[in-house]
Amino acid sequence: MNQVKNDQIRQNVRSRYKEIALQELESGSCCSPASSCCGSADDVSSQLGYSTEELTAVPDGANLGLGCGNPQTIAELKPGEVVLDLGSGGGFDCFLASRQVGETGHVIGVDMTPEMVSRARNNALKGGFTNTNFRLGEIEHLPVADQTVDVIISNCVINLSPDKQQVFHEAFRVLRPGGRLAVSDVVMTAELPAEIKNDLDVLYSGCISGASSVDELKTMLTQSGFQDVVVEPKEESRAFIKDWVPGAKVEDFIASAVIKAIRR
């Protein structure tokens, strides 16, 4: 993709998530920015693998119901670790991570939408989370120092980047040796039809047309220096993905996946 198209994609994504950040969501959340509303944010997140205990442990307004899995279940976070969330939104996964790393740990959330960063910071104050820090920035250019992070998590965000290789380069840069990547994201399991692939507005910001294949992700992670790369599509995820664009059968082409890798 050329730079102009990349910038247009970022603007589209930023604009859509600004809208989401500013809405109160009192009447329910959307499974994906491309979909019609289909239940509350908690209803959506329970389908993604979050427990009732997790859903009640965060401030109101932190869970926007926008993920495609639960990175907490694969991250195996430990007390004292430094965690970085790529595309932290309202802070939902950061606050859950905060509880696991404890007072001796620290959680950094990076998001490119100012309204999301503001929302997350307000949620942190509301919930009394003192070991979280939310920063404005692009995941292709992380505002994080070299080799300062133990674990990187992300929930259905990397697919939104028009330069995924650069995202993985940055992830590798900020991780300490021995650090790990634990991501939930969508992957392409069959070639997308042209009308879906070329929709760089609604369907790209809806976590669909920006999906990469399993082999593409493995190659990019390896090229960035990662080892022990695992990309596992979850067939059961198609049950909720079908609601993202009702009638379009996008579940025939994408699935949620567990993505893991280590910086040795």
From TrEMBL:
GO biological process: methylation
InterPro entries: Arsenite_MeTrfase-like, Methyltranfer_dom
Top-level EC class: transferase
Signal peptide bounds: none
Molecular functions (GO terms): arsenite methyltransferase activity
This protein's record includes keyword Signal: no
Keywords: Methyltransferase, S-adenosyl-L-methionine, Transferase
EC number: 2.1.1.137
Domain Methyltransferase residue range list: 78-224
Designated name of the protein: Arsenite methyltransferase
Source species of the chain: Paenibacillus solanacearum
Organism taxonomic ancestry: Bacteria, Bacillati, Bacillota, Bacilli, Bacillales
